[in-house]
Structures are given as C-alpha cells and as structure tokens.
C-alpha cells in the first residue's frame, strides 16, 4: 500500500492542479482522530481510509472525493464532528462524509420493512451526490480485500451483504470490474470449496491445453492486421464466481462449460468496432443468440460495447467485447467517469451518463411504490437485472429488465395500455402474455375496451412498474368489497363501545386521520390498513381502552354471511389479533386460517372459496388452543413449575404429549387455551424466560387438517 506521498503523487499524475496540501492535511487529521484505533488485522486504522482513497484515485476522481475517503470514518468512529470537518475542509466534503456515515449505519440486510426503508435512504443519498456511493463502494471493496482478519461469523454476514447488495449496485452504476471483484471476494467466503475447485480445474486445463489466452489473443491480432486496424487486444479467464454462476444457471459441470475465456478489443472509432466485428465473424463462426449491440442501444448507465460469442480454437467458445477507448473508460468506471480527471481537466467523455439524470430515471419507477414492500420489490426486480431492448411497431426502443414479458412491455409504454391488454404479438406472431422477451424483438400489444387487470398478472409481470400498476388496479376493483366489509367492522366497533355509527362520526374520523372521505376510511378498514381500535381511539379516546363484556365465542368473527358456521384451522391455529382469511368448505362452513398459513397455497386456484374476515374487536374468551413445542430440563419439579407459569398467565393447559424423553431433557407438545395473540406472546415470554426451558416454538403443522 502507498503512503500519503505516493497517493498524492498518483493524483498529481492525472490532476496536476490537485491541492496536495489539502489532501495531506486530510490524512493528518484522519490519522490524529483515529490515533489508538486498530483494525482486526492489527494495523493502525488510518491504513483503511488511505486504502479507500487509493482505490478512488485509481478511478482518477476529484480532490473532494479523495478527501472524503480519508475522512469517511472520522465522524462515526472518532470525536470529530460534522462541524470540525466543515470548518477544515469545506461544506461539500462535510456533506459527503455525513452521507457516507449515514450509509454505513444502514442495515441493508435487516428485516424486509427496515431494509426497504433503508434502501429508500440509500437512493436519497445517491440522488444528492453519487460520490457518496462511490466512497462507500470503495470502502466495502477494501473491507472485502481484508476480510480474512475478521471473525468467521462476521465474514459470512459481510460477504452475504456484499453479494446481495453492494456487488449488484456496483454493476448497476457501471463499475463492472468492481462488481466482479466484490462477487469473487464474497464467493471465497460463502463457498470456498467451490471456488478452490474451479481454480484447480483451471490449472489442470491450462496444463493440458497450454496458454489458450495467448494463442487466441494472437489470432485476433492477426485478423485486425488483415483489415488494417490498430487496436489493443486483451484476454483473460473469467473469474471463478462468474464461472460458478454459469454452471448453476445451466446446470452443467465445468467440463461442459465452454465460454470461460473473455477477450476485449479496444479501437479508436465506432466505425472500426463494426469492422472488427465483421473480421471476427469472417474468421470464426458466431454462436446464435449470443450477440448484443450495446453501441446502438446503450445501457442506462452509459455502457456501450459490442458483445459476440464465437467458436474459436478447437471449438472452444470465447466471448469478445469490442469498444472504443472512450467507451472503455465508461465501461471501467461507470458513472464515476463523470468526476474523472486527466491532465488537470475533467474528462469530457461523450458517453458518460449524467449521474443526476441517471438517478432521477432510476427513482422514477420507485416513486409509484405505495409502501415499503412494493419499493423493496421494485428495487430487487429493477436494480439488479440486465436489460433487454425491444421495439414497438413504430420502431421505438423500450428498455426492460431481463426476463420481462409483453405485460411489462405494455406497462412500460403506458399504464392505460397495460390495463387494457388482452394479448400480444412478438415479431408478428401471437404469443401468451407470459412469454419472455428477447433482445431485438418487436412487440405489439393488443387491447380491448373494458378489459381490466387480472390477479394472475401479478405472477406474469416482472417489472416493479407493472406490478405496482396491476396492484393499484386490483385494489380499485376490490374497493367496493372493502368498503362493505369496512362498514360492518365499523358498526361492530361502535356497538362495542355502545355508540351509534353515523355518517357524521365517520366523516369526523376521516378528517382527523387525514383521509380523503368516508369511503376511503371504510376501504382502509376493510383492507386491514386501519384498525377499528384506531377508529374508536380518534373519536372516543376515553373509551378506546375500555374492557367491555367478553365476546361470545360463536360471534368472534366479523364478515361471515348470516349465521354461517366456522371453525379454526388446526394447521395454523389462528388466534384473535392475527390477520385471518376464511376458506369455504362444504359441510363445515368456513375454515379460519392465519393469512400466512402455508396450506393456503392449496386454494390459490379457487378464489371463489376465499372470504375476507376479521376478528371481532374486544375481549375474547380463552378458548383458542395453540400448541407449543417445548424442550425442558428433565429434573425434579421442572414440569410442575412450567405448568404453574402457564397458570400464572391465566391460561389453561388442555393437553400435553411427551414427544421425547431423555435422561437430561423432556420434549413435550403442550396445548394452551388462549384469548388473543397478546395473551399467546405473554405465555410464551414467561416460558422462554425460565432457565430450565431450552427451546419453545409454536407448532404450525400443514398435515393437521381441520
């Protein structure tokens, strides 16, 4: 690793006007703040910010980004404040350091709701200044390069996060080299045996065939000389993770994998790119379906290149990328090229994508996401997929993620077209809506007046934009049903506190909750987006917590027709307070399932049997049996104490079955009669806290039918 003098010299080589003194001061300030701190490897902590700055200097980035790299951990990990950084190095650097600090605190691999919320913050940081992401990616790259000094559990968590989030993000902003290195470093932690196996096979292959890369590189140079083009030719074996991914996708072994070598030809002009393509296809046979022209149809991150795969020496498939020098700069650094310097001037590369415009276009589809779950779905679907380019009948280009269908194509054109879609033609041939589109195909959408999105479309659509539009339309279609159910829920809630439900009362509640009107209030109640407890709380806060009389067990469910019989499903044993759905069953009325019950998948193709239901709000009797699986110490008095703990929570044990009995422990299944989900959690918490209870789990068994 370079010292600070070497770093400054490197920066001066591409930016002679760089303020070396400012960079040196940033290093000294960072070193002083991190004094006494050490990395897991035992090195002084300042080695890490210096290494991050070197990675960014390799991309020829500006002074502010380099200074930010040197200071990126000071606000989070030392006594330095935002104001200290602003006073010494200016508000722009302070803003960048603050952005990196906030990103470092985001838990992008946490639970889904929190993850979606944090992804929004990630995109907000990107929209303010993309350099925040560049510093964070360089920070992650150096951490992955030195990951072996971490504890094994920390290595696995960081590698998983890198593979799932940071590597795809690097690829999406055009830094493909970084994506490949991050993936391979993570792969070495997550599956070292597979990686080592691929490396060993490479060594064996090279011993058997000689240096294939040198031979094919020489062949390509001969073809360039033949057509009079002076260009650079580079070849390399693909990285182990890239090979592993292909083996997994194609379900084939290493010996059957052909295109494990990649070659790159760099020329001066666009016209020469196509001449090189012609020369290569004249010499070697092109592999059908493996040609992509990203020069005429560039990726949204500015990437331009021609990709082709040919059968080279001994029939081995090789991938060749052909691009100009300017295209190569963008391919190597992506949007980072926007800040790149050469000879003291910002690089004016015509292929560089403006980061502000790029992020705005990326965020456009996410703005329509109504909640965190939809946003996260959109990120996963749109952010981490390659693109295909299809044409409208008029020849206009539509960019879609890989695997997109005609439905996605329709919604990409306009929501109105998507909603009215009844069919599609691809290259003039009628195809099913679930057909996967390929590069260069022409797609025509057939529409009909009165057509509305179907629920099955959610399984067909791939893009977040299409899924959000379909979901909104389905919600609108369900609105009448939700309003009807919401009216019934509201009536029961008002009756529960001995109040009369009036339109004026509902209108007052809607206004207090900042909802558009009474229908919106009722629709949200029916869709379980608003609770009746909240409704009563807004109108009658003094009554919201009153206990009231115990609800009759036969009237526990709201939403049943008339006096329809019902029973709780044994497979999931739902309790009051949990989201539920009813499934009609001949001779048994309605079977009540928890909304996340795995057996519901058996009824997906029978929507006519589904009934929207809710538990009555109020106090339920202790008649809702839940089965717990407990492992406890086999010792005198333990079982008696466990039973006493359950009784202390005012719950009754209705059955107990010994599953396993060993000299040192029991495993029992215990049926406990409960009032509500809160009651269940109280019982479970009391048991978990006992020192003789090793494990406790709620039993949900799909094989236990009603």
TrEMBL record:
Residues in ACT domain copies: 627-701
TGS domain mapped to chain residues: 382-447
Family annotation (SUPFAM superfamilies): ACT-like (SSF55021), HD-domain/PDEase-like (SSF109604), Nucleotidyltransferase (SSF81301), TGS-like (SSF81271)
Magnesium found in the keyword field: no
GO molecular function: GTP diphosphokinase activity; guanosine-3',5'-bis(diphosphate) 3'-diphosphatase activity; kinase activity
Segments forming domain HD: 45-144
InterPro entries noted in UniProt: ACT-like_dom_sf, ACT_dom, Beta-grasp_dom_sf, HD/PDEase_dom, HD_domain, NT_sf, RelA/Spo_fam, RelA/SpoT_AH_RIS
Known EC number: 2.7.6.5
Entry keyword set: Kinase, Transferase
Gene Ontology CC terms, in alphabetical order: plasma membrane
Stored Pfam families: ACT_4, HD_4, RelA_AH_RIS, RelA_SpoT, TGS
One Gene Ontology biological process: nucleobase-containing small molecule interconversion
Domain of life: Bacteria
PANTHER family for the chain: BIFUNCTIONAL (P)PPGPP SYNTHASE_HYDROLASE SPOT (PTHR21262:SF36), GUANOSINE-3',5'-BIS DIPHOSPHATE 3'-PYROPHOSPHOHYDROLASE (PTHR21262)
Family: Belongs to the relA/spoT family.
Protein name, entry field: GTP pyrophosphokinase rsh
């Amino acid at each position: 690793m370079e010292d600070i003098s070497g770093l400054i010299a490197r920066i001066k080589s591409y930016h002679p006007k760089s303020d070396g003194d400012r960079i040196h001061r940033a290093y000294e300030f960072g070193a002083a703040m991190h004094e006494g701190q050490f990395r897991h490897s035992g090195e002084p902590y300042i080695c890490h910010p210096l290494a991050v700055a070197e990675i960014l200097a390799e991309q020829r980035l500006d002074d502010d980004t380099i200074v930010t790299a040197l200071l990126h951990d000071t606000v989070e990990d030392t006594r330095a404040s935002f104001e200290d950084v602003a006073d010494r190095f200016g508000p722009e650097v302070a803003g960048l350091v603050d952005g990196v600090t906030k990103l470092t605190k985001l838990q992008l691999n946490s639970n889904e709701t929190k993850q979606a919320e944090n992804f929004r913050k990630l995109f907000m940081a990107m929209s303010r200044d993309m350099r925040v992401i560049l510093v964070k990616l360089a920070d992650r790259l150096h951490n992955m390069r030195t990951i072996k000094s971490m504890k094994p559990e920390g290595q696995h968590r960081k590698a998983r996060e890198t593979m799932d989030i940071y590597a795809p993000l690097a690829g999406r902003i055009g830094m493909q080299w970084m994506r490949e290195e991050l993936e391979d470093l993570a792969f070495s932690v997550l599956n070292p045996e597979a990686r080592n196996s691929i490396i060993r096979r490479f060594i064996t292959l090279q011993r058997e065939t000689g240096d294939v890369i040198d031979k094919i590189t020489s062949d390509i140079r001969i073809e360039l000389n033949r057509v009079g083009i002076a260009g650079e030719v580079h070849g390399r074996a693909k990285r182990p993770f890239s090979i592993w991914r292909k083996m997994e996708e194609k379900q084939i072994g290493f010996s059957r994998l052909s295109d494990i070598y990649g070659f790159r030809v760099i020329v001066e002009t666009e016209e020469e790119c196509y001449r090189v393509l012609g020369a290569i296809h004249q010499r070697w046979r092109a592999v059908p379906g493996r040609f992509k022209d990203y020069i005429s149809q560039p990726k949204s991150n500015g990437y331009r290149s021609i990709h082709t795969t040919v059968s080279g020496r001994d029939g081995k498939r090789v991938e060749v990328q052909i691009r100009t020098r300017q295209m190569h700069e963008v391919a190597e650094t992506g949007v980072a090229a926007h800040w790149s310097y050469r000879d003291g001037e910002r690089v004016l590369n015509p292929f560089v994508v403006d980061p502000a415009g790029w992020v705005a276009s990326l965020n456009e589809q996410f703005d329509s996401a109504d909640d965190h779950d939809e946003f996260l779905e959109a990120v996963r679907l749109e952010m981490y997929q390659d693109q295909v380019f299809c044409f409208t009948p008029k020849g206009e280009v539509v960019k879609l993620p890989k695997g997109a269908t005609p439905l996605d194509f329709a919604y990409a054109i306009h929501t109105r077209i998507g909603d009215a879609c009844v069919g599609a033609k691809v290259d003039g041939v009628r195809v099913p809506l679930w057909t996967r589109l390929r590069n260069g195909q022409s797609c025509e959408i057939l529409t009909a007046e009165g057509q509305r999105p179907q629920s099955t479309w959610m399984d067909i659509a791939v893009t977040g934009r299409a899924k959000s539009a379909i979901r909104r339309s389905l919600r609108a279609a369900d609105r009448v049903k939700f309003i009807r159910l919401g009216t019934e829920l509201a009536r029961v809630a008002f009756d529960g506190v001995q109040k009369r439900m009036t339109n004026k009362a509902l209108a007052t509640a809607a206004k207090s909750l900042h909802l558009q009107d009474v229908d919106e209030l009722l629709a949200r109640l029916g869709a379980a987006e608003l609770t009746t407890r909240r409704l009563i709380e807004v109108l009658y806060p003094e009554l919201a917590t009153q206990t009231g009389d115990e609800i009759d067990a036969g009237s526990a469910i709201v939403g049943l027709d008339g006096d329809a019989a019902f029973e709780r499903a044994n497979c999931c044993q739902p309790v009051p307070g949990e989201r539920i759905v009813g499934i009609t069953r001949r001779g048994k009325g309605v079977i009540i399932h928890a909304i996340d019950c795995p057996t519901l998948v058996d009824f997906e193709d029978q929507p006519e049997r589904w009934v929207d239901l809710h538990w009555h709000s109020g106090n339920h009797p202790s008649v809702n049996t839940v089965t717990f699986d407990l492992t406890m110490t086999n010792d005198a008095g333990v079982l008696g104490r466990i039973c006493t703990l359950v009784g202390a929570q005012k719950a009754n044990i209705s059955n107990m079955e010994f599953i396993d009995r060993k000299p040192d422990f029991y495993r029992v299944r215990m049926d406990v009669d409960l009032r509500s989900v809160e009651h269940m959690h109280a019982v479970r918490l009391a048991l978990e806290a006992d020192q003789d209870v090793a494990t406790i789990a709620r039993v949900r068994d799909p094989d236990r039918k009603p």
